[in-house]
Design brief:
Blueprint lengths: L3 E7 L7 E6 L7 E10 L2 H8 L2 H6 L4 E2 L3 E9 L11 E4 L2 E2 L5 H4 L10 E2 L11 E5 L3 E3 L6 H4 L2 H13 L6 E5 L3 H12 L4 E6 L2 H10 L3 E4 L6 H8 L4 E6 L4 H9 L1 E9 L11 H6 L4 E4 L7 H11 L9 E6 L3 H9 L7 E5 L3
Parallel strand pairs: 11-12, 11-14, 12-13, 14-15, 15-16, 17-18
Antiparallel strand pairs: 1-2, 1-4, 3-5, 3-9, 3-18, 5-6, 6-10, 7-8
Amino acid sequence: MAKKMLAAIKKEATAGAELVETDIPTPNSDEVLIKVKACSICGTDKHIYTWDAWAASRIKPPMIFGHECCGEVIEVGASVKNIAVGDYISAETHIPCRHCYQCKTGNMHLCNNLVILGVDRDGIFAEYATIPEICCWKNDKSMPIEIASIQEPFGNAVYTVMESNVSAKRIAIVGDGPIAAFACGIAKAMGAAYIYNLGMMPFNLDICKKMGAQVSINVFKEKDYRQRIIDETNGGVDVVLDMAGNKPAVDDGFAILRSTGTYTSFGLAPAPFEFDMANNIVFKGANIIGINGRKMFETWYQLKNILDYKLVDPNPVISHVMPFKDFIKAMEMAVSNDVPTSKIILTMPQ
């Protein structure tokens, strides 16, 4: 095996990244080494690449970033028991301590000492990566690498939808990024009666509609869309899935939510903002659900069933498949509005 690998490294606390040749990592006793087959770009990676306030507060360069991937196990640590060389895995990106209260009460995804792959430690934008055994999800060898590499973000959408009891409900999905698009397809498969989708990008709104939204609303172009939804639903939707998290999105979501409705929050705002708790929650009697990552590993079993039984086809969300050597070009596309993109997959030489 080669001793060096190509990797995308955030060298300094500034915008951008570099593709460099670096040493192939050695797995610890509880880790495996994988040869990465494919990886995909996430919103978190865009924050790190552009070096916004969140990234500056959290990331400690130099480091390899990225966290959505699939690969073949080529080496296992001495204490690894359930993963073997040759296994084809995808990575759960939340690394739990397995000892705190949250871990011991079935909530490893909310571990008090949580470490996130590609955020708090070196990630997977590389030809090889080390993954803790606890985070390895075995795939069937027949699964296409493009689908295997996006199971982590697909799982975000599965968790959001499954917690929200959308069956036979009128719902609104706020946001038009890849996870919002996945959520449109999953909500439709789970029996949502009617799906409104609110977003800003025509290209992405079209994808959300292909995935299952009955109505796609461009909030930049349509006037009085809040009142339209309230009128059409006799007072507001039953459930809002907030996949954006910024102040305008949150304001929209609570404005169109009916009294005693459910607001499920997944999207992250770039900074704190003022919020009217009395009118949005208290007087409305709203039910609030917070979503962080995926349940380990209930969500993974659910998403496996959804994919295995073809309840949702994620392929329309994949807008670009590019070789890993074009990483910088792919990141520039992802953070720019010049080229419409949804989910960008980067593949390694096979």
